[in-house]
Each structure stands twice: as structure tokens, then as C-alpha cells.
Design a protein that fits this description.
The chain is built from five helices and seven strands; from the N terminus they run αβαβαββαβαββ. The chain is α/β, with parallel strands linked by helices. It has a single domain (3-182), classed as Vaccinia Virus protein VP39 (Rossmann fold). α4 packs parallel to α5 (143-153). The protein binds S-adenosylmethionine. S-adenosylmethionine binds at residues 25, 27-31, 48-51, 54, 76-77, 95, 97-99, 106-108, 112.
Amino acid sequence: MRALDLVHNVVKNYVKEGSLCIDATMGRGYDTSFLSALVGDSGKVIAMDIQQSALDSTRELLNARKQNNVELILDSHENMTKYAEENSVDCIMFNLGYLPNGDHTIYTHADSTIKAINAGLNLLRSGGLMCVSIYYGGDSGYEEKDALMPFLKEIDDTKYQVIMSSFYNWKNDPPIPVFILKN
Ligand SMILES: C[S@@+](CC[C@H](N)C(=O)[O-])C[C@H]1O[C@@H](n2cnc3c(N)ncnc32)[C@H](O)[C@@H]1O
């Protein structure tokens, strides 16, 4: 199993035909395409990235799969409140790190990621799910993970449940899938 499979298996329980989802780190569009298939023609996916090459790859993938329920946005995810209403989103996915087969010097950073998670929590509807897959080590280092762990610990437990998963016996900085449920 990959971390991605665990996340997708959980997401399937929260996203239905007609749902509104945000892919906060579109990258090559694989999560965007996965969400697009789940929400169907009556739903919508908003996908964000700061790199034009991510939008280009994602557009190509969606066109090949004839998926046209996605809005592609070239903007930082910390601005996501510009693109959706409060309490309206069923699922938000973050897949942190750098663009696979892209520029490894451009990756997610703690300050903007924390702002984006806070913004996203307001956008989630009651009963909604946020997934944050924390990739760290390698070219992007440990700074983001080290800042995120205490931040996630302090999220208001009267409003949200934060579930931290661990691939406990994996070697070499295994990704950490985090699931945040809005009460
Ligand atoms: C690990 S990749 C995402 C992989 C993607 N989910 C997929 O299925 O291919 C992380 C992406 O986050 C993007 N990113 C970095 N900082 C960002 C920000 N502030 N706002 C939005 N996207 C950002 C990077 O450009 C990169 O494409």
C-alpha cells in the first residue's frame, strides 16, 4: 500500500456524486482526477497550484480522461477562500512537497501551508474531511513537518478531530497522512 492509497480509501467515504472538493496541491493532477471521478458531472473540483507546469499537466490528464468538472487555478492555496464559500466544501486534499518530475526547489512551506489549512478548515462543511499528506526529508527537508506537528496538535478539538497516521515500520522518512474531520 502507498500512502496515497490509504488517503484515497478514506476520501471515498466522504466524497459523493455532486460534492464540492478542493485539491490544494494539484501537481500532475492525479488527485484532482481522482476527485473529479468521485464528484461526477453534478459536482465540482477546484484545483490549485503555483506552477504553470502543474496546470498544464493536469489539464492534459483531465482532457485525456474527458473530465470537465474541474476549475484549475494558478494561485497559492493560502488564498483558497477566494474560490469557495465558508461551510460548503466536502473534502480538501493537500499533498505536500514538490512537483514529481518537476523543479525540486519549489515546494510547500510551513507558513503558507498553515495559512491554507486554517482557510480550508473554514471552508469545510460540517462532516467534511481534510487530508494533509506530509512528505518531508530529501530536497524539501524537515522544516515544514516540524512546524506542522505542533500546529496540528493545537487545532480546536471542540470543532475538529485530527487523526495522525503513521507507516510505523517504513524506513527513510515515510509520509504522514493526516485526516481532519469537521464536527
Ligand atoms: C507533491 S506535489 C502534489 C502532487 C499531486 N497531488 C498529484 O497528484 O500529482 C505538491 C505540489 O504543491 C505545489 N505547491 C507548492 N506550494 C504551493 C502553494 N503555496 N499553493 C499551491 N500549491 C503549491 C507544488 O507546485 C507541487 O506541484
